Amino acid sequence: MKASSGLSRLSKLALRQRKQGLARLLPPVTEVLRGSLVERYVTCGNPFCKCARGERHGPIWCLTVTLGRGRTTGGIISVEHLARVRTWIENYHKLKDHLEKISEINRELLRRDRRQQRKG
Length: 120
Fold this sequence. Notes:
This protein is an alpha+beta fold. The protein has one domain (3-17, 26-119). The chain contains two helices and three strands. Helix 1 runs antiparallel to helix 2 (79-119). The chain is elongated.
């Protein structure tokens, strides 16, 4: 949502109200997790196991988090924690999206204040 996508047409009051509405929609910041869930099927290495014949073990759910250039971390997520981890990852994306929208509104409000200062 850039200024060209409609923010410039809204009143200051409407911008402030939209910002407050977005703030109310923010998920709890203690329930966020940055990362991705990956479903994997693995072989154990036992030559007599079913996985040696192509029937792999799984699904095994793994959390992967990129730390920086070429560095990742993570671990295996148990089935009991899977729903919670999915929710936390969704909350992270919602939080990031809403914060970006709030920032765009704040930039538009600053543009208007700067314009008003030049005029007045």
